[in-house]
């Protein structure tokens, strides 16, 4: 079956429809909730473009007048909203530090929506140079376009079948998402709800005074996340695990004395939490700076091209530009940007309204914060867009950008916020303002990271850019409206690391929110001059060493590389979180090897032979993430309503060991089913 080509510029089809916007809003709720839960649990989010495209096709094919461009608008809106959930990398720090007792709806909406929509505005002028003229691969954008094309071809096949001219239609792939989602939902409910399955197991042993740990988690969402990030990032995270639990913790435990009565697990975990995680912070910081440095020239070219594009906007308004090249005009970009800056000003003013400062001092701090968010956000927009085009949205260093931002804005407030720092609780307010300012930057960066991916999809299928940009703006507002209630629900049900909403809650069930915890520690350390610089400097040295090794491998090896940011995340994440991600990456690698071997035996090109199996693998992995994440949100609602930690549990503490073995068995069983289902198409 021949797939349809790009919709010509002289053909006009319905794109931004009411039903499409409504469907996009519903999908937004699903993927935003899923990404918020996953991000708080493990510090990772996933690109929702591909599953959103599949769901859109499956629903809109019920309408005979639906088309590929309408499907594209739905996935554009939904993927933008899902990506905005990256704000959870920083915003929960305000609750952790006690500045907020929950997540105020209007403040959260304001910072998320304004920041995200500014990300859209900043990337519009970059579309031509980075999407149309660039040879960047844009992996998720290209994949989403191919899925939309397949769906459009199937619609044509349906019409031919109705006329008796074609065989039975093929599946869209919705069944693969549902299969993965149901499997993960059932297993997650059995583990977090009924408590009959364990979620992790660890082996502890000591050699001399050195403590070692062999960890494994059983999260199917993390298995899916590992499958999506691939073997290179997976091995980098494994390297981080080895550095953390095979080198750093054993050395520190051998150098110290274990307190009397303490277990190996408690002693070693304490060393990792208070010492080793800052090594990971140093590695992440160096990786982020290196990434931004390597992207400086492309970023500069993108900024230059943006001004050139704005100067040509009059031609677009006059209608002399083809439909497929019409962006929002310079006038609209300027007007919307001014409105968004005004929203940021109001949001920051409300945030600082309780500070014991004069009105002039408050407005001065508001100006500092908004100016920083605007200027630094504009700079990272091009960098994040380029990085997403190069390696994909899921592996772009948003958390690294956040770390750089929190350091810069903290130093800015420390230098210019003299009046704030001199009042009672002024340091606490300065830390909170730094975190809130960084939240705006993260919102800008995350949307910039995703939007060019969506615009690439639109360009490949022949969408109208300005309509797609409107869909992106709608997606930002829809996603921002969902984030606050979901965060409130999850916080009240599980709590965050070192921050529980109620006494007596189980800290083992708390969401780790690793990036927010790290950024709070960095901001506090800068303002109180108590940052663990020894471990951070060790981490920075490790990061520099990894960069040097990576550059050497770049010259000598065509495949093997070491993504430094992924190594840092592997050091920083809890080991039972990182381990199943590595398992998912290894599963993807083994499947690829098997498919390559079968393609060679069949005498076919690998890309053609493996297209359908690879697509099925991506959809199953996405389903695993969505299924487990939605059960996590559902359990949060049940826990919040019941007021107890495990209202549905049918197994007690004495069953924990058996539950761990059962959890391992089920995890392996699902991985085998994943393997077999993918290979059915080969």
UniProtKB/TrEMBL annotation:
Q: Does the keyword rRNA-binding apply?
A: no
Q: Can you say where in the cell this protein is located?
A: Membrane
Q: How does it sit in the membrane?
A: Multi-pass membrane protein
List the GO terms this entry assigns under cellular component, sorted alphabetically: membrane
Instruction: Write out the transmembrane intervals.
Output: 20-38, 45-63, 78-98, 105-126, 177-197, 204-229, 235-255, 276-297, 330-353, 365-391, 397-417, 429-449, 469-491, 531-549, 569-591, 618-643, 655-675
Show the NCBIfam families listed in the entry: OPT family oligopeptide transporter, OPT_sfam
Write down what this protein is called: OPT oligopeptide transporter protein
The organism that produces this protein has a lineage beginning with: Bacteria, Pseudomonadati, Pseudomonadota, Betaproteobacteria, Burkholderiales
